[in-house]
Amino acid sequence: MSDSILTTKDLRKSYGDFEAVKGISFSVLRGEIFSLLGPNGAGKTTTISMLSCLLEPSGGTAVIDNHTIPQESTQVRQVIGIVPQEIALYEELTARQNLTFWGHMYDMGGKALKTRIDEVLEQVNLTDRADDKVKSFSGGMKRRINIAAGLLHKPQLLFMDEPTVGIDPQSRRRILDMVKELRDQGMTVLYTTHYMEEAEELSDRVGIIDNGKLIALGTQDELKKLVGKQETLRLHFGEGHQANGDATLFTQIDGVLTTTAVNDQLVLSVNQATAVLPGVVAQASSLGLQIRSIDIEEPNLEAVFLHLTGRGLRDG
Ligand SMILES: Nc1ncnc2c1ncn2[C@@H]1O[C@H](COP(=O)(O)OP(=O)(O)OP(=O)(O)O)[C@@H](O)[C@H]1O
Ligand SMILES: [Mg+2]
Fold this sequence. Notes:
Blueprint: E1 4-15, E2 18-29, E3 33-37, H1 44-51, E4 59-64, E5 67-69, H2 73-79, E6 80-83, H3 95-105, H4 110-123, H5 139-151, E7 157-161, H6 169-184, E8 188-193, H7 196-202, E9 205-210, E10 213-218, H8 220-225, E11 231-236, H9 247-251, E12 256-262, E13 265-270, H10 273-286, E14 293-297, H11 301-309
Parallel strand pairs: 3-8, 3-9, 6-7, 7-8
Antiparallel strand pairs: 1-2, 1-4, 4-5, 9-10, 11-13, 11-14, 12-13
Helix pairs in contact: 3-4, 4-5
The structure holds adenosine-5'-triphosphate and magnesium ion.
């Protein structure tokens, strides 16, 4: 199962003079969960929109299941399912009516559509709310109906664009479990997120995207190797404190490799956290800085992003 269902080469998109996607090349293998991990504005939605044939690329190529985008968009649409970042549902219609509408968009109808709607409602755990108006749903339930709509025509490849943003923890849990179930049933998933934890939990492989460029790509182990054996020491000073001015004051400590300020936190790359901890605490105290808490982290995808960009995934 190592052949690709999707391959892009030097894919680009400009909005006027601004190039939002600056030549992206990657493949998604059949049966895997591939995450595009990147901060706000990185170009995730623009990339997904081009691959979903909703937005014409300005350059480069993309092929899905041997069909070229955008020339063979009709065939591509049969293969892909889309769960867009913005929820698209009719509030005054019930869940079932919304799904019927989407089914018609995919040329489905009759008894086959009815049966399939029952199946996808079951899959997203909303059978008991099927005949309630969507306006009575929580954000998480709306998301799940959106996912159900994307699954209606049994796509081989599902695009999910930040499907857990702004929803309750229970719905989030359910969605993450569902993504893994879909993969286990043989579906391929291209998942975008700016949550490091989600990319870590879900992904077989990860592409890290920043400022319209793919800056790293590989399995999680491959990406973490980019950071080496370093550990991360994260000092929290508490809200209201801007750590920017403190960064250089900690680089002089023996064993501290790099120091980055991320909002109210100072993130230190170190060889061995326990060895440098006393020096770090002493330095903070001599500077009159109050440390609220300290985390010691093994290499993770956040550390990879920090290592590659000098910024955190969520520092604006
Ligand atoms: N229609 C548009 N016109 C002009 N600029 C746009 C348009 N859509 C997106 N952009 C810009 O392109 C860049 C990439 O946007 P995109 O929505 O693809 O990012 P994203 O990674 O999906 O971000 P988010 O995590 O916030 O959803 C941003 O700088 C954005 O402001
Ligand atoms: Mg987006």
